[in-house]
Amino acid sequence: MKEIIRKLTGICGPSGSEGPVRESIRAEVQRILAGKAKGTELRTDAMGNLIVTRHGSPSGLKVMLAAHMDEIGVVVTHVDEKGFCRFANVGGVRATALWGSRVLFTGGAVGVIGLEKLEDPSRVPGLDRFYIDTGIVGKADCRVKVGDVGCFLRDYAEMGRLITAKALDDRIGCAILLQALDELKDSPHEISFVFTVQEEVGLRGATTSAFGVEPNLAIAVDVTGTGDTPEAHPMSVRVGSGAAIKVKDGGMLAHVGVKDWLVRTAEAGGIPYQLEVLEGGTTDATSIQTSRAGVPAGVLSVPCRYVHSPSEVVDCGDAEAVVRILTAGLSRGIQL
Amino acid sequence: MLLQKLSEATGVSGNEEPVRALLLEAVRGLADECRIDTMGNMIVLRRGTGGSPLRVMVAAHMDEIGLMITQIEDNGVLHFAKVGGIDDRLLPAKPVLIGPRKVNGVVTFKPVHLTEKGERDTVVSWKQLCIDIGAASRAEAEKLVQKGDTAVFATDYCELDTAAGGWRTVAGKAFDDRAGCAVVAELLEDRYPFDLYAVFTVQEEVGLRGARTAAFSVKPDCGIAVDCTGANETPKKKDLSPSTRLGEGPAITIRDNSFIADPRLVDLFFSTGSRLGIPCQSKMPNVGGTDAGAIHMTHEGVPSITMAVPCRYIHAPKGILSLRDFENTVRLGREALRRLPETMKQ
Question: What structural domains and CATH numbers belong to chain B?
């Protein structure tokens, strides 16, 4: 899985500009399907969600699996006379990770994030005190304009059992869906693998794709926080301790039947798992759950340190555990 | 002039009827169909000439920010709540008009003589302010107003710079979004290749509520919100964005807090502007939200954009906009709509 994770995390795709991620995933899906029997459809909807639907049998459910293609980033709000760019956040950007970070704009320009001289350096400044230096000397030369978006620039690296990269949130979820699509043999269910857009700015792609797919069971695959670092906020989830099965987060209570089904599947298969209660943040499952007349929804999470920093850290073994739960659970009938 | 009538009409969120009546009168002769939905949105269909199967929704909101009377004190003064986004610093001592009878009132305020040292450096919360209608008692006040009445700033429309070749600025209240309503009314004068649904929405200022239900029933293939947006051009120490500037034409939203505009539509508006020499500008990203935020999330998703008339001092008693910008917004809207079918094929 590491190769696909490396490939997907290397792509620049902030919310609203997921095109290159979608094309890469589409190519991967086509490669996977090339060796398989027919009966799978691909489509991109009006918002830009990529929906891959595998046909099922009449006895099965309509299942939606969601992982978001977008990542956090920046958007240029102003180019000053000297050519420095002021910017705002795309999704949950933290000021503490900004100074000295590099930005890659979707148009190809690179910039370095600088910071005004602060009166009180002991206080974390707001985003309005930072700027992007794109290495040019005047407004007229600036290749970047108001409204342009960029992602953080940071290489993928392996460190012991763990890997680090930008945008593991949620390219690792995309990689998991691709792996599950590849490994899942027979299933009675009609399964839509949905690669969503604009999760980081308000679960927007999942809202419209859930309306379109109209599932009767949904699982979002995303990253979650951990409590295993020095002086962390208390949380029992640890990197390397298996797939995290969500009980609750800042936006949803997982459907109890779905959560229990995921737990049963993990236990039956001897797959490492841990229960997750996340106090802040949420996933696509929140908007899917309240689509139309309501959808039983749960989340499988990959524990991730330093979420929304340019160096997110995960254990690939946890991601593989998520794939195993999905393929085991979806290969037979589901009783909630 | 329609803009003046709309600006001076009262229509706080949830009480848009006077604005709707003016707009109905203005567009009656242009509508192939017109209906008012459960929420109070007015949906006007202008049939297409048949060249395109698209359904296009253009939306402008009728409501404005204001106050709502919540309680009447024994001594006749009125407590109120804010409706929509109002900066507390704007409220003290402002003249207001309350309820359908437009009763005159003044937001309370302590004169300079009676304030303590330091008091003038702090902002008084709206919770500590009342509206005074000059009534001697609760009984007297209840003859004029009742709980639930809404109040607007008492502001007449006026012309400022009228010189030929100038900005032709005007001042008034509620240009957000009566300016957009007036633009949409003018857009209805043309026919386009597709069916155009012009929707005058309710309750935008309290959460894009009208647009949500209207878009669900119209089920458009494309959504365009026409709004009025802030221009903050007061001199600043730092070189920062004014968000938009007066005189530079309609402001196109690339992304704001409510949605990300469809890139094809962004390109359509800017390329139409540059090809035809209609000035237009980008609005500073990540500021505010418009009806497009609700429209684009309808059903399976609707490619959307916002075009706005720039205005100084929005969400305040008196804003200033340029009629030249207003006219350029109409021109850009009309020309972009003509080119829309080609864009949506991409």
Answer: 2-64+173-344 (3.40.630.10), 66-153 (2.40.30.40)
